[in-house]
Structure formats: structure tokens, C-alpha cells
């Protein structure tokens, strides 16, 4: 079954959109697109869902409360290009 | 995205809120955003910083909720002296030279434009062009040539 991958940012408008696009492109390049169901939101709406483990994988481009920090992959590299492969590796490790 | 031609070159600002306020004022003046945009944007920058440090340059991509926006627009500022922003995601202090302020009318829209913008800030040659540009029109042309419009 496809894993749910939630991408969150501060507003759910801009950077989560870009991050989602980057992850989709990468997963397509390694032939794993169908292993993931993409979701996108803003962090304020998702804290309790993330605490409850509602999603299999969570990537954030914004700061997350410390309570859920360990459950979230920092996706800022997807935007800066610095250390981007590490993010893809972390995602793949959870598939 | 650039129809209002809000391009501020070599602006001085005391800090990031000062810089953001100046750009937001221009967006309000042009009609791209509502009165509520600036306070919402300033507050959001504190809660969810938008600085990004590529290995080439420090930029910020401030934006806020779609309800404060009338129509899609990008406003650009090149700072005379960089000002400090916090980086998205990890809150690290970074020095920002370019601000791309986004007014986006809809969530999840403009993927192509946003991806183009992210590619641009990682492109040494285009950053050099933006650093060297002397007129507003030149900046608009560089951004358009990069695919942002």
C-alpha cells in the first residue's frame, strides 16, 4: 500500500508546493512514484495529526514544534539545493 | 507576476521587518494586496521565517495567506547592505541580499513559477545578473528570461 507523505510549510501556499514537486520528480526518477500518496498542508493544522502518527512520512520546510521534531524530515534543502540528496535518502528510508 | 513592476534596488533597511514593510507598502499601493497583507506578512515572518541560504546567496521569500491578496504578484528588493533573516526550517541566522515577496491568490498554485524561482536562486549566473542590474526594467527582463511571469 502507498505510504502517505505529508509536506507542510508555514502557509501551505508556496514552499510546500515546491518541495512536493521536487520529491515527486525524484521519486519518479527512481521509479517509486506509486509508493507514495502526497498530501500538503500548513503546519498549524497538522501538529496533532503528526503527533498521532496519522501520516507515514512528514517533510517540513518550516520550523516545527519540538514535540514533533523527531517525526519530521527537514525539507529546507529541497529549496536551497544544499544537501538535497540527504532529504531524498531520508524519505526513501521510510518507504 | 511582474506586471506591477515592483522592483526596489539597493534599498537600505534597518532590519528585516523594515525591509519587508517597504516592499509590502508597494504591493498595497499597486493594489495587488489588501490592507491586511502587511501586518499578516510581518507576523508570519516572525512565526515562520522565510530566509533561504543557498551556497551562492542569502534570499528571503516572504508570503502570507491567500485571503490577504487581490491578485498574483512578485515584488523584488535588492538590499544595499544585507539584513539578517532567520532561515526557514532551522531558524539559523542568515544574511539576505535579495527579497522575493510573493502575493499569491491561491494555495498550491503557481508551481511552475515557484520552481523557477527556486532554480533561479541556485543559479550563479542569474544571481550575478541580478546583482549587476542597474534598472528596474533590467531586473524584470532577467526574471522574465528566467521564466518568471
TrEMBL record, chain A:
Gene3D superfamilies: 3.40.50.2300. Its EC number is 2.7.1.-. Keywords: Sugar transport, Transferase, Transport. SUPFAM superfamilies: PTS system IIB component-like (SSF52794). Residues 3-95 form the PTS EIIB type-2 domain. InterPro entries: PTS_EIIB-like_sf, PTS_EIIB_2, PTS_EIIB_2/3. Coiled coil: none annotated. GO terms for molecular function: transferase activity. The keyword Transferase applies. This is PTS sugar transporter subunit IIB. It comes from Weissella sagaensis.
From TrEMBL, chain B:
CDD domains: PTS_IIA_fru. Keywords: Sugar transport, Transport. Residues 1-146 form the PTS EIIA type-2 domain. InterPro entries: PTrfase/Anion_transptr, PTS_EIIA_type-2_dom, PTS_SugarTrans_NitroReg. The keyword Transport applies. It holds the Pfam family PTS_EIIA_2. PANTHER family: PHOSPHOTRANSFERASE SYSTEM MANNITOL_FRUCTOSE-SPECIFIC IIA DOMAIN CONTAINING PROTEIN, PTS SYSTEM FRUCTOSE-LIKE EIIA COMPONENT-RELATED. This is PTS sugar transporter subunit IIA.
